[in-house]
Design brief:
binds FE2/S2 (inorganic) cluster, 55% helix, Arc Repressor Mutant, subunit A, mainly alpha, single chain
Length: 56
């Protein structure tokens, strides 16, 4: 599912990013642009990130 529509980032992309070492919203923002436009996805992106990190 799409987490960030503005940047076309899916939960799968976020999980793959976490598997590659990403562990913060700052890194997700810098590397994928998540939450850098409208910001609507911030809380959903945080949830997916948190879940993926806890499963690592
Ligand atoms: Fe992510 Fe707009 S949906 S910045």
């Amino acid at each position: 599912m799409y987490v960030c529509l503005c940047k076309g980032v899916t939960d799968k992309t976020i999980r793959a990013a976490v598997a590659d070492g990403v562990s913060s919203m700052r890194e997700l923002r810098q590397q994928y642009g998540v939450a850098t436009q409208c910001g609507c996805c911030t809380s959903c992106a945080k949830d997916v990130l948190k879940e993926a990190v806890s499963e690592r």
